[in-house]
Amino acid sequence: MKEAIVIGATRGIGKTIALRLAADGFKVYATGRNPEALNNGVIAEAANAGYTMIPLIFDMTDRDAVNRVYAQYFPDHAPDAVVYNAGTNADDLFAFMSPEAWDKVLHTNVDGFYNTVQPLIANMIAQKNGRVVVISSVSGMTGQTGQVNYSASKAALIGAAKALAREVARKNVLVNVVAPGVIDTDMTKDLPKEHVLPLIPMRRYGVTEEIAGVVSFLCGPDSSYMTGQVLGVNGGMYI
Asked: What pTM did the predictor assign?
């Protein structure tokens, strides 16, 4: 059975991705900081559906904690697919943005990518097989008012993924990016729809299943000649 790890699978997009990959036949490792939320959520849903899913509990900003968990579950191999979905936001106009808001978003979104993906790459190269899917954002492609920190972090992930794709392509490790637009999750529930929907040509929010479907494609056999690409799933918000 192929293995996949979904970084940040407690809720929203990550939870749906974990369940989709489990349905695709992967043995899924779902990560999160909160054991109760993880076990009572996606892990319980997977068990009820008969899927194989294992919870990994760590804070992705804690490099030592990540390495301790990986040493237990991936001592001499890497999963076939790694999905980096975790992230946070702390929106404000740049002129008023606190150092704490800047540091929190960059440390979590960018350092978290290094902490959770980098330790697996050497074994992916040795196995001459692997898929890395990075969840960025339309904000990383275009920039958004009030999201200088978030846009910077998501743009950094795109740059990192493109560079990594060049480094590992000849070893059959494929690295691609999914850049969602406005998706109906807890993160977007307080956005003023009357102002947001006119910016989206399809005039609706996306749903998490629409992101998970693209991730499924990138982790599957039909994307075997794709690497270094950014797939926008945004309802036409960025064309």
From this structure: 0.96
